[in-house]
């Protein structure tokens, strides 16, 4: 802070010395130059092409191009120096192979909330972007995953489209992918498309038309969102292989007691479990390490304390902080008196 103050004082002194008769409007630039600042650094960078008139390319961040919310219907010309490209909230309908062919250093491409369709995206549109890490294509008109996506991707968002199928080749080789959003599409099954996504930690495939839990789910996943599908059965040993899974949401499905094998959700490490808006009649057994449980809007008829604590005493108790059981067929009168011991950590118990 002291250095900044000294710098400003020097500039003010330079101005005051030179202003007896007439003020030079560019004298401040001379003061900066005299202290080793290059005035060229304050001008627009035109390396690799000039910034399109309809976009902004700040001199302070010359590798970023901001074209968001400009009413664009076609791709602008992108200078080759760009690494960060913001094109969201436009009406862009096509992405030809040539659109990004010269911008091979791109790291982020934001194309969400446009009007792109799969057949209007060139087969090689993304092929040369070997360093691309984030690609946002949500809220478009896609019916499939665009071809030849870079294997360098870490964050891929394809939610809120009309994707009805994902081929095994679409995501093949994406060893770095950690976040995949596919929710709110028209998927009926996933096949083996998720196989090999060894770094994936967050998968959201809610809001589709899935009738079963996908096969070949990545083993290192932390967050799995399957809500708002048509899943009625959970496979045997469903969660046994996911040692790092902490959050699972399966609300708004068609799960019944018969469709959940015993102790499916009684696994250590799980932090949040959402089974709300299903057709359950009993509380499924859960681990004592679980912290948040959502079972509202089912058909549960009994508050079974054994689902939370196999033994109820001073030492053994549940870590649950949130328990939602409202919208079922039980009332507060059905809650056992010794639940105060088992659920002593709970801040919220709604019945």
From TrEMBL:
It is found in: Secreted, Extracellular space, Extracellular matrix. PROSITE patterns: LRR (PS51450). Keywords: Disulfide bond, Extracellular matrix, Glycoprotein, Leucine-rich repeat, Proteoglycan, Repeat, Secreted, Signal. The keyword Signal applies. Its main location: secreted. SUPFAM superfamilies: L domain-like (SSF52058). Residues 1-18 form the signal peptide. The keyword RNA-binding does not apply. It comes from the Eukaryota. Binds to type I and type II collagen. This is Fibromodulin. The gene is FMOD.
């Amino acid at each position: 802070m002291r250095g900044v103050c000294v710098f400003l004082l020097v500039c003010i002194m330079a101005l005051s010395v030179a202003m007896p008769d007439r003020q030079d409007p560019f004298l401040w630039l001379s003061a900066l130059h005299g202290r080793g600042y290059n005035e060229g650094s304050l001008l627009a960078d035109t390396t690799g092409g000039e910034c399109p008139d309809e976009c902004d390319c700040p001199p302070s961040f010359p590798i970023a191009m901001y074209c968001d919310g400009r009413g664009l219907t076609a791709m602008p010309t992108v200078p080759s120096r760009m690494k960060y490209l913001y094109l969201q909230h436009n009406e862009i309908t096509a992405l030809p192979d040539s659109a990004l062919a010269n911008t091979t250093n791109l790291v982020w491409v934001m194309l969400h909330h446009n009007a792109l369709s799969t057949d209007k995206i060139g087969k090689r549109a993304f092929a040369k972007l070997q360093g691309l890490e984030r690609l946002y294509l949500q809220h478009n008109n896609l019916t499939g995953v665009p071809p030849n996506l870079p294997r360098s991707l870490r964050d891929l968002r394809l939610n809120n489209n009309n994707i009805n199928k994902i081929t095994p080749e679409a995501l093949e080789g994406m060893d770095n992918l950690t976040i995949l959003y596919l929710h709110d599409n028209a998927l009926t099954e996933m096949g083996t498309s998720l196989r090999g996504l060894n770094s994936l930690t967050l998968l959201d495939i809610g809001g589709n038309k899935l009738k079963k839990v996908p096969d070949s789910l990545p083993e290192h996943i932390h967050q799995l969102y399957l809500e708002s599908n048509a899943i009625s059965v959970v496979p045997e040993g469903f969660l046994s292989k996911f040692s790092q899974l902490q959050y699972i949401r399966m609300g708004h499905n068609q799960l019944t007691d018969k469709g959940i094998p015993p102790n499916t959700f009684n696994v250590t490490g799980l932090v949040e479990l959402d089974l709300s808006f299903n057709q359950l009649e009993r509380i499924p057994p859960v681990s004592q390490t679980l912290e948040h449980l959502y079972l509202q809007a089912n058909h549960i008829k009994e508050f079974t304390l054994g689902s939370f604590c196999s033994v109820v005493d001073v030492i053994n108790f549940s870590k649950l902080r949130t328990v939602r059981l409202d919208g079922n067929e039980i009332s507060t009168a059905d809650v056992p008196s010794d639940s105060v011991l088992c659920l002593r950590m709970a801040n919220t118990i709604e019945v």
